[in-house]
Amino acid sequence: MTQPLAAATSAPAESEDESLFARFIDVQKSYDGVELVVKGFNLDIRRGEFVTLLGPSGSGKTTCLMMMAGFETPTHGEILLKDTPINGLPPHKRGIGMVFQNYALFPHMTVAENLAFPLEVRGLSKDEIKQKVKQTLEKVQLGDFGDRRPAQLSGGQQQRVALARALVFEPDLVLMDEPLGALDKNLREEMQYEIKRIHADLGVTMIYVTHDQTEALTMSDRIAVFNDGVVQQLASPETLYEEPDNAFVAYFIGENNRLVGEVTEKQGETCTVRLDSGEKVMAKPVAVDGPGSRTTLSLRPERVSILGEDDAARFDNVFTARVKEVIYLGDHLRTRLAVCGSDEFILKTPNASGHHSLRPGQDIQVGWCSADCRALDA
Amino acid sequence: MSDSPSAPLTTADGVPLKVSLRRASRRLKIKALLLVSPLLAFLIIAFVMPIFDMLWRSVDNPEVSNALPHTVEALENWDGESLPDEPVFAALAQDLKTGQEARNLGLVSSRLNYEKSGMRSAVMGTARRLSRIEPPYKTALIDANDAWGELDTWQLIERESAPYTLSYYLAAVDMQYTPSGEIVEVPDYLQIHLALFWRTFWMSGLITLLTLVLGYPIAFLLANLPARRANLLMILVLLPFWTSLLVRTTTWIAILQSQGVLNDVMVALGVIADEMRWQMIYNKTGTITAMTHILLPFMILPLYSVMKTIPPSYMRAARSLGGKPFLSFRRVYFPLTIPGIAAGGILVFILSIGYYITPALVGGQSGRFITNYIAYHMQTSLNWGLAAAIASILLFVVIVFYMIFNRLIGVDKVKLG
Ligand SMILES: Nc1ncnc2c1ncn2[C@@H]1O[C@H](COP(=O)(O)OP(=O)(O)O)[C@@H](O)[C@H]1O
Ligand SMILES: [Mg+2]
After folding, report:
1. Which end of chain A is more exposed for a tag (fewer CB within 10 A), N or C?
2. Within a 10 A sphere around the Cβ of B4, how many other Cβ atoms?
3. A3: closest CA of chain B, how far (Å)
4. What DSSP character marks residue A152?
């Protein structure tokens, strides 16, 4: 948390930085010799960082984690841990803590025995083991549960034990593969907080895998968005949300209105896009070439405003929209609009006092700033 | 709930909840019972009844009291210390006469002959000469056959006049009654069953161990290979089940006999000389080899079914926690397979101690099992009581093993398939 994160993405010149902890260099992986599951994966992780691999199911996240842990070998490329290549190193010599999706707690051992296992294989004395197990269990608030079997614990408690077991031998690096996937929503949020707290307390480096974007956004220092075996964007949560580099990231992180069209004009910080339905929209060019190139415009629903009589001047994009549907969500309202050739245009408005009461079929004026409307790849 | 002080729960119409639940489930129970009734009837007729018949035969002792009723009655007041008096001999003469006319002295003569050799000819010979025998019967019968002048004969008749006997069980473990009724071991040269029991147990144990050593890695592969290759392997494992037991056994004869495939190959390769061919069949080696092969699937399948339920992440977790491969296997994977080992082991051991055809075909003299003696007593010596006693002892051993297994592992832990 104390790392200078903002500089991280934009300053690749830091290669001599000693705090570079783990690196994937141009890693590729194929299981069948036909298809690449991971294509040219690059990732630099600083000591103490919390990095999340986020992507849809089947995008190769687990594979990357397994390569780091040593259970799969990269077909190409190199993985460095503290500047040492570890491609040939067997898993038990890597000293990496790992939390598995189903926890993989040894069912025939008690909780304390589970935690003692990594210490025993390291040849610690009985007293040391006992003390460390106790300490670690207390750290995850399971001090009294040492004598239980994993089957006698709830899902959340098992999750804590798995975490404790991955931490008890004080690894520098902890890998977690969708560790909260099996928990219900409340417990998941509680555990997210807990993991963050432990991360901050211990200062360990964590690589976390999830397909849940909320989880990624709340927990991570940096997020690598995966798709199709390639990292689409590696950035802090804020940057990912505010400034997605391409259409996939914009679509995958948060909600997003998509308008498709062609660039007609590009002048510095703005460009003009003619939508397929004919409207002209001012946007911020992010990943487009000059005039003539196809583009997808990405616009967050909460950055669209409903205009009164006189505030049209505030926005450089103003259109008339027809209300299709209004969904009441308590703290905010989601309104589906037909505008700019799209029937699925979503508008999010806070449920403030005196909010606009909209009716389906009604025509309204909506507007947004060109700076919030990003012109991305087609 | 039922012993809580509050009133028992009732349904809306006031019937106690338990009663109405029982009513509702009764129809289901009856239906289930009807569905299994053919199998149940079959099991009772073909399995439960024979077992009880066997247990009954192993102690049933009707021959003497049926064939010699008057003798038995006359012996009631006998002191057992010296030869009985004339009335007993007269009663014997009468019983033998009746028996001779009805031609039913065979059973009693064999029964007495099991216990004291020479009794068959004593009974049958005396009966044949009965027409020429005049009172006083005591001297006449002793004249006809010396056995009637021996005290043991009468002690034997008196002892075996009881409706039940332990003597089959004693014979099954190489023991016998002395004439005075004490239990002692039979002389060395007559001892046979104990050695056979022992051989059956240690060879079955060895076969179980061999199937475990051979089957464990196969089961592991079955549980961990990609589905397509695992299916192929499974077919190979099941293939023996689709081949006749006789074919499998005789194939081993073709391979192992002294002019067989294996010896021929070894001679051709120059590993052994032509006149030094190995004797690998009709002895213990033959029995162990063939039975290990035949019983292997019974070890593999329970092991596989247990291993299938062990996710690969356990081993991965152990490795990532710093366990070397073998240590991780020993501390994590192996303990989780123990229910499979126990289930496979108990299955193979129990099948093995009751195996008959294979030891009979490839065991020769030295590789026979106790079962082959059961068959011998059933078919050749016709001593069904002894066969039943040996079989009951085997049944008892099986039950004991099963109970130990259930206590240590728990039968419910074992899932097949
Ligand atoms: N052991 C394996 N053998 C063959 N293919 C695999 C194996 N593990 C994963 N794959 C394939 O690799 C792709 C990526 O899988 P994975 O890394 O598990 O994705 P994720 O964790 O992002 O859901 C998937 O298409 C999956 O089918
Ligand atoms: Mg995965």
Report:
1. N
2. 8
3. 28
4. G
Architecture of domain A3-95+172-247: 3-Layer(aba) Sandwich (3.40)
Ligand 1 pocket, residue A179 CB under 6 Å: no
What pTM value is reported for the model? 0.80
Which helix (H) or strand (E) element contains residue B233?
helix B227-238
- What CA–CA distance (Å, rounded) separates B234 from B219? 9
Q: Give me A11's structure tokens.
A: 């300053």
3-state secondary structure of B311: coil
Do B127 and B224 reside in the same domain of the chain?
A: no
Which residues from B are below 8 Å from A102, CB to CB? 311, 313
Residue type, A225: V
Angular region, A203: left φ>0, alpha ψ -120 to 50, beta rest: left
The reported pLDDT for the residue numbered A173 is 94
- Compare CB distances from B323 to A92, A102, A166 and report the shortest one's residue: A92
Token pair listed for A375:
């012109």
What's the CATH fold of domain A255-376? Answer: OB fold (Dihydrolipoamide Acetyltransferase, E2P) (2.40.50)
The Cα-based distances of B135 to A160, B83, B126, B138 in angstroms read 100, 17, 14, 8
Give dist(CA A138, CA A201) in Å, integer: 14
Give the per-residue pLDDT at A9: 41
Say if the Cβ atoms of B320 and A91 lie within 8 Å: yes
What CATH number corresponds to the domain at position B204? 1.10.3720.10
Question: Smallest Cα–Cα separation from B298: which of B228, B260, B345, B239?
Answer: B345
Instruction: Region of A77 please: left (phi>0), alpha (psi -120 to 50) or beta.
Output: left
3-class secondary-structure state, position B102 = helix
Q: How many CA atoms lie within 13 A of A373 on its CB side?
A: 26
Out of A24, A28, A30, A31, mutate this one to test ligand 1's pocket (max ligand atoms within 8 Å of CB): namely A31
A59 in contact with ligand 1, CB cutoff 6 A: yes
Residue type, A79: I
pLDDT for the residue numbered B174: 93
| pLDDT of res. A3 | 43
Coil, strand, or helix at residue A307? coil
To test the contact with chain A by mutation, choose from B320, B324, B328 the residue with the greatest count of A C-beta atoms within 10 A, namely B320
pLDDT tens digit string along A189-198?
A: 989 999 999 9
If one counts the domains in chain B, the total is 3
What is the residue type of B150? E
User: For the residues of B187-202, what is the DSSP string, one character each?
Assistant: PGGG--HHHHHHHHHH
The amino acid that residue A47 corresponds to is R
Whether residues A106 and B332 touch (CB distance < 8 A) is answered with yes
> If we measure between CA atoms, which residue out of B295, B205, B297, B338 comes closest to residue A107?
B338
Is any atom of ligand 1 closer than 6 Å to the C-beta of A60?
A: yes
B7 pLDDT tier (thresholds 50, 70, 90): low
Residues of B in contact with A169 (CB under 8 A): 321-322
Structural domain of B405: 194-413
- The CB-side HSE value for B372 (13 A sphere, CA atoms) comes to 19
CA separation for the pair B229, B207 (Å, rounded): 28
Q: Two tokens at A31? A: 């299981």
Domain residue ranges in chain A:
3-95+172-247, 255-376
DSSP state of B9: P
pLDDT digits (tens, 9 = 90+) for B368-385: 999 999 999 999 988 999
**Residue B239 to residues B139, B218, B236: CA-CA distances in angstroms?**
71, 14, 5
Q: State how far the Cα of A232 lies from the Cα of A31, in Å rounded to an integer.
A: 22
Is residue A285 within 8 Å of A375, Cβ to Cβ? yes
DSSP class of residue B60 equals B
Beta bridge partners of A257: A299
Q: Is residue B392 part of a domain?
A: yes
In a domain, B158, yes or no: yes
